[in-house]
Amino acid sequence: MTFIDFKKLLLDAEITLPKFANLIKVNEKNIQAYKKKEEVPNAIAVIAQCFATMQEHNIDYKELIKNLELQKKEKKGAGFSKKKKKEDK
Known about the structure:
DNA-binding protein
């Protein structure tokens, strides 16, 4: 699915891209990156299509998704450590 078609589905679902990303607990920057690729992954396309269809049928999909209590994945990179290493004396 093209990024443009994805954005149209979000309009049909009556949700903004930032709110979509927050609802499914995905980093908004990751979804914005698909704009450069000009297409979105199948899983994201399916979610957007389902949301648009549910909205069309007056199903409160936002509440259904919130009830799943999804957790946002934390980045586990090799960046700066949050904990200071203990110095040997």
